[in-house]
Predict the structure of Glutathione S-transferase.
Amino acid sequence: MMTTGRYTLHSMQDSGNCYKPRLALHHLGIPFSIVDVDIENGESRTPDFLALNPNGKVPLLVLPDGRPLAESNAMLCHLAEGSALVPDDPYERACVWQWLFFEQYSHEPQIAVARYWLHLKPGGAAMVTAEQIAGWQKKGAAALGVMERHLERADWFGEHRFSIADIALYAYTHVAHEGGFDLSPYPAIGAWIDRVAGLPGHVDIAWRPSNG
């Protein structure tokens, strides 16, 4: 397998899951290259791509030694190992993992999925039912409520400081309006979004590195 001596992220620019490792890599000052993958045209289902990720999804991170790693939150854990983005204390670290699992089980399946069908997928809004949208709204609002209650008593999801838990949850929460979610009833979430965006090293979802 060809290696580049740096991380290579196979990515779709507008995807929140792909944004997570981009944001972490930038915060950590790790150079990387981007390979754009057009999932709508089957580029994640080619034999070459499936050889790297049999699940046929992006993001896919290829390490400098050529080893592939799938799943955005697994990438966050790998990249942040030993950094300030992961607590040293075992309990605080487990609390970070707790929020990563929450993001994938309770948050992303509602907020990210609604955004994909209603904002990103060409013609997607016509392909879903009112019942599906109502389901996303109900369960998404429940997830946002959990986040709001936490943020009413804490500044971050990593207990006492910004962590990969914040990166994971920020990726889709800050664009939740694109999936039809109104964030105005969640002032603590709004303040947290502003805190994350104001951190040194922050880049927005449109940012991409130079591959040069």
Observations:
- Strands lie at 7-11, 32-36, 60-62, 68-70.
- The first strand starts at residue 7 and ends at 11.
- The mean pLDDT is 95.
